[in-house]
């Protein structure tokens, strides 16, 4: 299926959208990721990635409520679609498999 | 929540907000502006508004990306995954156009031979039309490079002789001064000499024969000649010369020619004052060098003596430039009688010759240079028009081909249309598909045509003696080409697009529709039109060639083989007897004579002849004149009708005259030999009668000619001993001429080569129309071939059944050929009267011409039939030889 090729940043954004669940919009994603990754996030990068994810059909968007700090403008709220979840699961499975298959000796035996 | 952000003091930079507003796509604007404001607010509270402002700008910069301003299509992807993605798209949607092209390419690749015929035919047609277009453009734009194109005129004059109003550019010498002095309409007046123009330029030991003219000093500005080097007014001093860059290079190599001295005609030293750019080949004013007008008076005393104030001798030319905004018609009215006024004492001039001076605009110099009875009747423009028509013919033929093949093929695709409609294709989409397919073919043909034109242009230039290029930088060229391609593509695609798309899919898919019947009539008409054009071209070409051959076969009255003519000089004339003796002594020369014009031309014509029984009106009768002395008849190789040549044995022969048969007729002399004639103040006796010599145009009536014993020598004619090969003879006589004519290179012309040049235009036209008609036939046959294969394919089943029922191969062949043969016969019937009418019109301009016989039409009919049968027989036999079991088994 087209769109299953996820970039790293795309995957992170997608995960963040899932994490924020009901309040996933661009500013929230920027804030959340800014804290978690401990580096400033660019709104532009997040925005474009979310657009791309939507084009790939991995997220679905709708307009949310408007707030005063937005000058009365509505926000676009994102939710992960079934396809998006599937892609995330797939990517997680691949990673888990990879981790599982790494020989103990590779990281000095300290891997749990 | 803190609402500080709504207060004006905490706002993001206004310019950044505006920029964001301006560049963000409308469908993203609300969301992004909201995001930016919210972030600004949050950051401002957290770490101060100064930092927030900075970060606002940084974020704005990082937002800059096509996705920010890209319009709706950016959201297309959403449709693709929505459940509404089967909504039909506009037929002009980019996706649809991509799809049309893909289908078109697949169709082209699938039917390779058909595509090749179709594209190839159209490309050849386009290429020919393009070459003709380039040629016409070159002709029509001639002289336009002169900055004063709009205001330059040549002064010409009408005069009536012997009841005919003739037009000439030869004017009396003093007209220039008078135009300058008395008429304020002119910005500049330039006189020039109308002589042969070939002069010898000597630099050191090297001699060059170059072409140039004496011309007034204002010519440089008037004709906006580009001075590459030297004086800005280079013709001011009499002993100057202006060279073209080409001539300067030939004479002086890479040295700077300015200020260098060269010798003109071995007598006069001239200083090079300027180098000008060579004129383009389609310019009327051509020269290798220019000489100052005043120089002639310094070199030739006869200019001052006979011409300076003489209004009766017309030997000079004049160009004028009108001031801005002056109506030439008004100027014409003013200058009309200026020659007449000066000669009004002569009743003959006042009453019958009536000279009328007028201006001929530069725009008409090249293509409208002919006058009949005082009216401008055109000129070379008739060939431009003829080839315009040829080009249009070829294009129409190629387009018809293209349309016929496209429509014939498209009928096979009725089923495809049915399926497409059943699946949900709209009519507009089908129209789009067929149109883009035919436009693609036309575009491919255009590319191929350009590919054909570029390598063939040098050959075309050689054939037409031009230096034409494709003006790739010219937007007019491109717009014409693109519009034409679109037009052809859309026209050819219109039938399948509009007609096939209208079918009901149910009927098509049931197999109930037979599109062939209703569509075959227009196709037949188109084939007839196409073949009519081709046949007209074929007949035209044959008649042109017949006319050329007829002219070539016309008895010239003299022997032009083994005859050479050499430009004379004063040195040669003075030592003529010694030169003659030495030449005869070589054994390579059998005879030599002097004359005023080369044997293939007559340069002089005169009125004022009187003879027994002539009336005063007869004095205006014009006789062409050759002046010579002894041995003319022998050297030129003329068989006399009556009498004898001028002879050294009769001292009275210095007052002798020879006349041609037309002159005898004009004078009404019963026994011409011994008759007394009077001309130029001398009584002359007719000593012999020559046949009507063809020395002017081989296609015109022979004018009455007098061969007069006078020493106006400009040429020496040499008859080579028939026993000696011409190349050997030239080797033998060259040193003798070099010895007697030290200032001039030995330059000779063979009379037979010169004679053949008289057919230049006719041969050019003949060759070009031959090429055009061969291509026309070729394209038509390509189309026929394609149609025949299509027909044969359509009737495979019918032929199979016929064969099963006992039809022979010949029967089937006749069946398939019959239709086409009928069409070709109809074409010939339509084309013959059209061609007959057109060619009769063409022949009207010739006096010595063929009469068009029925033979041409028969020959062309037979040829057309043969070509047609050959073309379609391949397909017909292929169909006839097919095993009926195979053709009936399918499905």
Quick one: which chains have the greatest interface? Answer: A-B, 28 and 32 residues
Radius of gyration of chain A, Cα only, in angstroms? 17 Å
- CATH architecture title of chain A: Orthogonal Bundle
Helix % of chain A is 40-55%
Q: What form of chain A results from the Cα inertia axes?
A: elongated
Task: Describe, in plain words, how this protein is organized in 3D.
Chain A: This is Transcriptional regulator PadR-like family protein. Chain A: It holds the Pfam family PadR. Chain A: InterPro entries: Tscrpt_reg_PadR_N, WH-like_DNA-bd_sf, WH_DNA-bd_sf. The complex is a heterodimer of chains A (112) and B (891). With 112 residues, chain A is α+β, with helices and mostly antiparallel strands. Chain A contains four helices and two strands. The relative contact order of chain A is 0.16. The radius of gyration of chain A is 17 Å and the shape is elongated. Helices cover 52% and strands 13% of the residues of chain A. In chain A, strands 1-2 form a two-stranded antiparallel ribbon. By secondary structure, chain B is of the alpha+beta class. Chain B has 32 helices and 26 strands. The termini of chain B are far apart. The N terminus of chain B is likely disordered. At the A-B interface, helix 2, helix 3 and strand 2 of A face helix 2, helix 3 and helix 5 of B.
Give a nutshell description of this structure.
Chain A has 112 residues and is α+β, with helices and mostly antiparallel strands. Helices cover 52% and strands 13% of the residues of chain A.
């Amino acid at each position: 299926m087209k769109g299953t090729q996820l970039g790293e940043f795309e995957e992170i954004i997608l995960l963040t959208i899932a994490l924020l669940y009901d309040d996933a919009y661009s500013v929230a994603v920027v804030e959340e990721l800014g804290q978690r990754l401990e580096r400033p996030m660019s709104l532009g990068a997040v925005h474009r990635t979310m657009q791309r994810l939507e084009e790939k059909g991995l997220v679905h968007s709708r307009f949310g409520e408007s707030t005063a700090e937005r000058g009365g403008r509505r926000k676009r709220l994102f939710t992960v679609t079934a396809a998006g979840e599937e892609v995330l699961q797939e990517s997680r499975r691949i990673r888990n498999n990879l981790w599982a298959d790494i020989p103990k000796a590779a990281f000095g035996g300290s891997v749990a | 929540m803190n609402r500080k952000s709504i207060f004006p003091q905490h706002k993001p930079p206004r310019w950044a907000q505006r920029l964001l507003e301006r560049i963000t796509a409308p469908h993203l604007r609300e969301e992004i502006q909201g995001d930016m404001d919210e972030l600004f607010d949050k950051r401002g509270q957290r770490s101060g508004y100064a930092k927030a402002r900075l970060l606002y700008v940084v974020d704005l910069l990082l937002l800059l990306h096509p996705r920010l301003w890209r319009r709706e299509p950016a959201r297309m992807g959403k449709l693709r995954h929505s459940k509404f993605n089967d909504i039909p798209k506009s037929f002009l949607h980019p996706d649809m156009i991509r799809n049309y092209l893909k289908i078109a390419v697949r169709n082209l690749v699938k039917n390779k031979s058909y595509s090749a015929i179709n594209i190839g035919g159209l490309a050849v047609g386009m290429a020919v039309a393009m070459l003709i277009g380039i040629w016409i453009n070159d002709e029509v734009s001639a002289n336009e490079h002169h900055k004063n194109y709009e205001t330059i005129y040549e002064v010409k004059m009408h005069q009536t002789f012997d009841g005919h109003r003739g037009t000439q550019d030869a004017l009396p010498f003093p007209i220039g001064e008078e135009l300058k002095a008395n008429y304020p309409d002119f910005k500049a007046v330039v006189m020039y000499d109308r002589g042969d123009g070939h002069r010898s330029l000597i630099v050191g030991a090297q001699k060059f024969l170059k072409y140039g003219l004496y011309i007034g000093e204002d010519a440089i500005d008037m004709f906006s000649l580009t001075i590459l080097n030297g004086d800005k007014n280079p013709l001011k001093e009499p002993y100057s010369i202006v060279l073209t860059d080409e001539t300067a290079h030939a004479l002086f190599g890479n040295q700077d020619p300015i200020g260098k001295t060269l010798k003109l005609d071995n007598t006069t030293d001239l200083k090079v004052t300027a180098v000008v750019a060579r004129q383009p080949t389609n310019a009327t004013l051509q020269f290798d060098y220019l000489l100052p007008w005043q120089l002639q008076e310094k070199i030739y005393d006869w200019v001052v003596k006979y011409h300076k104030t003489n209004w009766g001798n017309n030997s000079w030319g004049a160009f004028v430039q009108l001031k801005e905004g002056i109506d030439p018609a008004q100027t014409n009215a003013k200058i009309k009688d200026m020659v007449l006024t000066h000669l009004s004492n002569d009743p003959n001039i006042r009453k019958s010759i009536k000279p009328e001076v007028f201006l001929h605009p530069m725009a008409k110099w090249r293509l409208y240079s002919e006058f009949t009875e005082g009216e401008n009747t055109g000129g070379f423009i008739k060939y431009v028009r003829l080839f315009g028509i040829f080009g249009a013919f070829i294009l129409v033929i190629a387009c018809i081909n293209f349309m016929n093949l496209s429509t014939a093929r498209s009928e096979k695709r009725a089923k495809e249309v049915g399926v497409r409609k059943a699946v949900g294709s709209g009519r507009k989409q089908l129209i789009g598909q067929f149109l883009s397919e035919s436009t693609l073919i036309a575009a491919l043909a255009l590319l191929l045509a350009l590919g054909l034109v570029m390598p063939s242009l040098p050959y075309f230039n050689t054939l037409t003696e031009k230096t034409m290029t494709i003006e790739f930088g010219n937007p007019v060229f491109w717009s014409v080409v693109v519009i034409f391609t679109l037009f052809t593509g859309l026209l050819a695609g219109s039938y399948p697009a509009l007609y096939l798309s209208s079918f009901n899919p149910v009927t098509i898919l049931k197999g109930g529709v037979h599109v062939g019947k209703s569509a075959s009539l227009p196709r037949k008409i188109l084939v007839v039109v196409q073949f009519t054009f081709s046949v007209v071209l074929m007949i035209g070409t044959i008649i042109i060639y017949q006319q050329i051959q007829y002219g070539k076969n016309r008895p010239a009255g003299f022997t032009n083989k083994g005859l050479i003519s050499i430009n004379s000089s004063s040195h040669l004339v003075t030592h003529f007897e010694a030169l003659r003796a030495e030449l005869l002594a070589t054994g390579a020369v059998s005879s030599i004579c002097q004359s005023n014009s080369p044997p293939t031309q007559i340069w002089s014509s005169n009125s004022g002849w009187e003879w027994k029984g002539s009336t005063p009106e007869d004095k205006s009768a014009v006789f062409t004149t050759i002046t010579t002395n002894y041995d003319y008849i022998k050297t030129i190789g003329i068989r006399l009708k009556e009498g004898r040549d001028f002879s050294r044995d009769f001292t009275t022969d210095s007052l002798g005259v020879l006349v041609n048969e037309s002159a005898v007729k004009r004078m009404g002399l019963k026994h011409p030999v011994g008759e007394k004639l009077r001309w130029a103040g001398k009584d002359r006796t007719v000593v012999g009668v020559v046949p009507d010599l063809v020395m002017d145009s081989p296609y015109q009536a022979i004018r009455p000619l007098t061969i007069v014993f006078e020493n106006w020598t400009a040429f020496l004619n040499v008859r080579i001993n028939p026993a000696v090969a011409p190349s050997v003879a030239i080797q033998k006589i060259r040193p003798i001429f070099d010895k007697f004519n030290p200032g001039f290179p030995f330059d000779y012309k063979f009379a037979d080569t010169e004679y053949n040049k008289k057919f230049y235009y006719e041969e050019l036209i003949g060759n070009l129309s031959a090429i055009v008609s061969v291509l026309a036939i070729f394209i038509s046959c390509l189309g026929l071939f394609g149609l025949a294969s299509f027909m044969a394919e359509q009737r495979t089943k019918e032929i199979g059944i016929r064969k099963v029922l006992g039809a022979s191969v010949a029967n089937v062949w006749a069946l398939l050929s019959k239709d086409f043969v009928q069409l070709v016969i109809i074409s010939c019937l339509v084309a013959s009267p059209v061609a007959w009418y057109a060619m009769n019109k063409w022949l009207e301009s010739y006096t010595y011409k063929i009469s068009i016989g029925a033979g041409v039409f028969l020959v062309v009919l037979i040829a057309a039939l043969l070509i047609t049968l050959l073309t379609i027989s391949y397909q017909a036999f292929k169909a006839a030889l097919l095993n009926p079991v195979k053709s009936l088994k399918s499905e």
